[in-house]
Amino acid sequence: MSDTASALSSASAVPTATAAAPRHAALVRITHWITTLCFFALLISGCEIVVSHPRFYWGETGNVLTQPLFKIPIPASRNLVPTGYGYVLPDQNGWSRYLHFQTAWVLVFTGLLYAIYGLFRGHFWKNLVPAKTDLSRRILSREIAEHLRFKRPGGADAWSYNVLQRISYLFVIFVLFPLIIWTGLAMSPAFVATFPATVNLLGGQQSARTIHFFVTVALVLFLLVHVVMIFLAGFISRMRAMLTGRLATGTEVERT
Amino acid sequence: MNNLTRRKLVTAGLAAAGGVAGLGVAARLAQKYGLVPPDHSGIYGLGETLNYAAYRLLTRHSMAREFSRSQISKRPLENEIPPPSDEFKRFQSAGFADWRLSVTGLVAQPASFSVAELKSYPSRSQITQLACEEGWSYIAEWIGVPLSHVLGLVGVLPRAKYVVYYSIDPDWWDSIDMADALHPQTFLAYGMNGGELSVGNGAPLRLRVPRQLGYKNVKFVNRLIVTDSLKGFGKGLGSEAPETGYAWYAGI
Question: Do B131 and A63 touch (CB under 8 A)?
């Protein structure tokens, strides 16, 4: 077996390491792709729901008779909304709401499975929490500068997440996902009847809806950057790693 | 290697069998404790059942948030209503004096009530939010008689599970389970913000279910049927909403 240092430093030494352990654990790969599918289902159905009332408010209440915080300049699927367009889009809220909530259940169960795995198998500590030494201003600014120059990541990045990746993944997993579930539930009249603090802390039901929207925007931005980075790092090798767990191409040593 | 694979296979097989058996038991229990919604079939049935079951376990007795008088929306929105029928216009021009609310089905004494009779019962008010599935909302004071009071007068039989309610337009109907029907905030509302309920807001009677979204709050209510099964109503999905693609349970 080659030593770890050489495995990390050059791609040619990877095969042996591949045989020993996949780049991404099976559970991480499976939950990653379920989350991907769920995210698209939630995004599409969420957009359809927003189209029925593309106006956002702050506080407890808001409707076409009150001043919105902002409007999305698109036609609506209900004729009560004054959009300035002379037509009304078809109403898609029925299946969108069914799909939105059913997918949310799948995503929450997937997230729980991932969180339990991450906690008990050291995934969070090993792969996501950045090393203290990496959090120095010097290293962070170097990483940011390299990212801004679209520098292709080196061999070590193929085997381990860099510090910016770690910070953004942690932010998505532990801030954006919990926040989008919380603000989603805070829009439910029955849920807030039982847990009124969940909506009162956000400043009201319309505030929850507005935050839900902005967290979605943040997640979409994350997705865009995530996909761009995969293309920069090498689409085929990164997709192969997340699909099969194997990193190098064509040189895998089969387990015997 | 072979041993490991076999062990893995056996474990996976046992886990799958256990999972299927567990699902079967869960389905039985859910059915027994009334946690399965009428629109539980179809591709979204699983999510719908999880919603309703989770909410029933969590929210059976909880109270919808009530607000202060200063939080009442300045202009309560009158959502669009279908053009009133000639029959409705006749009732309206007579000041709804002839409007009757009939209560039949699994009750000891079927009865019908005039609006004046309903107003003679202890009146209650609540300042709650009405939220539409589209995303908008407003807060208003609702004045009416709790549905539980009227159900008490007719004597609901113990095996009752749902209350079906109809608008004067027989295609506009819905139903709620007994947890919502007997809930203290579920009103037959006839007043709003200190005055009479407007026609745009459902005069003379609107069923107010504040723990569910706007579309469960049917306007122009004139008929209640207490039942133990929703199979015989419409397509058996519990209301008109699932027939047009919307969920029966609208607490979410």
Answer: no
Helices (H), chain A: 4-9, 14-20, 26-51, 93-120, 123, 137-148, 155-159, 163-171, 177-185, 189-194, 197-200, 205-244
Residue where the block lists tokens 């003379």: B204
Question: B218: domain CATH number?
Answer: 3.90.420.10
Give the CATH number for residue A200.
Answer: 1.20.950
Residue B247 in contact with partner chain A when CB distance is under 8 A? yes
- For residue A79, list chain B residues with Cβ-Cβ distance below 8 A: 80
Whether residue A253 contacts residue A25, with contact meaning beta carbons closer than 8 Å, is answered with: no
Does residue B52 lie in a domain region? no
Q: Is residue A94 part of a domain?
A: no
- Residue B23: inside a domain, yes or no? no
Q: Is residue A16 one of the residues assigned to a domain?
A: no
B51–A contact, CB cutoff 8 A: yes
pTM of this prediction?
0.89
The ipTM is 0.90
Measure A166 CA to nearest chain B CA, in Å: 32
Does a structural domain hold residue B21? no
Residue pLDDT, tens place only, B43-73? 999 999 999 999 999 888 899 999 999 999 9
Instruction: Closest CB to A191: pick one of B135, B210, B252.
Output: B252
Residue B199 touches chain A, beta carbons under 8 Å: no
